[in-house]
Amino acid sequence: xxxxxxxxxxxxxxxxxxxxxxxxxxxxxxxxxxxxxxxxxxxxxxxxxxxxxxxxxxxxxxxxxxxxxxxxxxxxxxxxxxxxxxxxxxxxxxxxxxxxxxxxxxxxxxxxxxxxxxxxxxxxxxxxxxxxxxxxxxxxxxxxxxxxxxxxxxxxxxxxxxxxxxxxxxxxxxxxxxxxxxxxxxxxxxxxxxxxxxxxxxxxxxxxxxxxxxxxxxxxxxxxxxxxxxxxxxxxxxxxxxxxxxxxxxxxxxxxxxxxxxxxxxxxxxxxxxxxxxxxxxxxxxxxxxxxxxxxxxxxxxxxxxxxxxxxxxxxxxxxxxxxxxxxxxxxxxxxxxxxxxxxxxxxxxx
Length: 351
Fold this sequence. Notes:
The chain has helices at residues 41-50, 65-79, 151-167, 193-199, 286-310, 317-350; strands at residues 6-7, 26-33, 51-52, 56-62, 83-87, 95-101, 105-112, 126-132, 138-145, 172-183, 205-206, 222-229, 235-242, 261-267.
């Protein structure tokens, strides 16, 4: 029997006025930046477990797979259901992952959008293709953590996501820590250009929460975390809210510096198949994923070595000699990266 999605807190916490409830033919979605390196995983897992009835939990800034497993275990204990985790390969200690309810959803494919990760420096959007078991509806869920420190790169990422959504043959739910700085004080009159790039031409619409409140513990009164859906999809938006607990802000090193955002969608009764061909992307070849990971590691090593070489002085004989050695090694590493990139391109073409 389907559980109700209800945001439940201990008695010493104040509950939000709106209660999110998910019934039999609904899909409950939560996105949450859990602040790797700045939060306690026990506290994070307990908070996730208090959000009963979650079907999909899109996480960003996940420090390790152990963090993801702790959250998965907390949900399983709370829900008395089997959950699984889809893990992103980019971002290192700021990874993306999706934890989902196996009894409500069948995972039928997944991919990472590496083209929407500038120079592989941040996180590639992680896409899971699901079939909702109750309605038969197939859809894509894409969790993100867009570039924070470089506006131009973030704006381009949002534009690329808009194009990606248009290319899909299944409806899309997309969200996460988008860093769009939507101003609470003036109802979004001031907001990041990325918001407009993503929603351009009505490709997706914001699932606007019932309680408009800041989602990040900072001096800025703005929303950084969002859920969007393709309009006219096989669902209707039932409810949405920003999850607020007493003591969640200001961030204290125990909690995350972000608040979760939750939404409930009423699903259609017929699968949205589009045509006779498969509506989902094939899962990436494991060899390609391994090559991509190797290239990312090599790029990271090159960047580190470049920084070390830049700190050496040409006026000091010993440092000058060491610098020449490092530059020679860097030249070989660049060639290795170039060859590995070509192999990766050839493997991707054949796949």
